[in-house]
Amino acid sequence: MEIVYITDVHDYLRGLKKVFQVERPDLFLISGDLIYKAFLTQEKLYHFAEIQDYLYQYTRRYELATSVHELCEKITQKPENYSLKLQQYAREYLNLEQQAVENMKRRYALLRSLAGRYATTNVFFLPGNYDMDLQYTALASQDMHKKMRKIMGISIAGYGGAPVYTPGIPERISVVFHEYHENNLLMSEPREFFRRTQPEILLIHNPAYGTLDRLASYGHCGSLGIREFIDEHPVRLVLSGHVHEDYGLLKIGQTFFLNPSNFGPVDTIYGPQEGGYFCRIQLQKDEKVYVRRVSLMRLYGEEIYPVLHIKIDRNLRCQEIIENEAEFQIIKRFLR
User: Fold this and answer.
1) Who contacts 122 (Cβ-Cβ below 8 Å, separation ≥6)?
2) CA 159, CA 230: separation in Å to the nearest integer?
């Protein structure tokens, strides 16, 4: 079985179309941040994010157990209880929020159309922190969030989203990453979901803690609950994204963790990251699932070419073969 795995698309639909046209795997898996900007202009995006942040800080300052959307509804219902600025911001927020939802739904409909027209096999999507809940979009039938599917005898389960505040994306429509501490106990919906489904492959946007999840200015940011599940029930392969800088193929015990880095371009504090990266994964299934080969690919312009291949034997020993030395010098390291 061959999978083409892509993460962090960031609105790069032209590039996705090219991959659909060229690649012929048994399955496409696309993990999160399908959308990058919910508005068609930068001016409107920045204005929405400014209002959103003001209202979000207001709820935190007054310790209100409410979302920004709920706050805005309360303000519009009883405007006399709030300042003129809050009244104006509430009206603008609700109006812009509806525009964002409509824009995003059109983009998901286009994604479905691209997959249906150009991909020669099944395409499944997982929402990230920049996405809305896909069950309310044209991608509902291809949604992997809190779903398990058996494909060619291999069970794959997905859990999307990430526990972060994402400016410019309405919180009301986002996937909530249900993981928090209560009375010193970790409450984790993704952990319990994977315990129930017991998949052989995990498809996640937010990585497991300590696995391809390090931010330079923060440290590890991954899910403790997902890591607990993997430590208790080693799976063969974990596909993640979200942390573009901490990419690669990592082996811990019997489990491989893979993050090919961002496919779509993204702005960072270090400057723009062009992206274009994705992976081909070859699996073999007999009594167990074996990862036999991982190829890091890159779309640059109109050309797709291999950067490197990693061959994996039955004893989980890896051999890295570099195909494009110039590209490898850019990424510097992939096999961990």
Assistant:
1) 27, 28, 142, 151
2) 14
Query: What does the alpha-carbon distance between residue 19 and residue 4 come to, in Å, rounded to a whole number?
Result: 9
Place of tokens 């979009």: 137
The answer to whether the beta carbons of residues 16 and 110 sit under 8 Å apart is no
Alpha helices in 198-300 (DSSP H): 224-232
pLDDT tens profile 176-231: 999 999 999 999 999 999 999 999 999 999 999 999 999 987 889 999 999 999 99
pLDDT at 149 over 70: yes
Please give the Cα distance from 1 to 282 (Å, whole number): 6
- Nearest CA-CA partner of 194 in 155, 163, 161: 155
Instruction: Determine the residue type at 87.
Output: Q
In the prediction, which pLDDT does 273 show? Answer: 83
Sequence letter at residue 125: F
pLDDT tens-digit readout, 103-118: 999 999 999 999 999 9
Taking residue 288's Cβ as centre, other Cβ atoms within 10 Å add up to 10
- Render the burial of 259-286: b for 16+ CB within 10 Å, e for the rest: bbbbbbbbeeeeeebebbbbbbbbbeee
- Pairwise CA distance, residues 12 & 36, whole Å: 9
**CATH number, span 2-36+123-331:** 3.60.21
Residues paired with residue 277 on neighbouring β-strands, in sequence order: 298
Strand spans (E) along 138-264: 147-151, 154-159, 179-182, 185-188, 201-204, 214-215, 219-220, 237-239, 248-252, 255-259
| 108/105 Cα distance (integer angstroms) | 5
Q: Comparing C-alpha atoms, which of 248, 246, 233, 241 is closest to residue 201?
A: 233
pTM equals: 0.96
pLDDT of residue 49: 95
Tokens 């300590």 — which residue? 210
Q: Encoding tokens for residue 212?
A: 């391809």
pLDDT digits (tens, 9 = 90+) for 6-59: 999 999 999 999 999 999 999 999 999 999 999 989 999 999 999 999 999 999
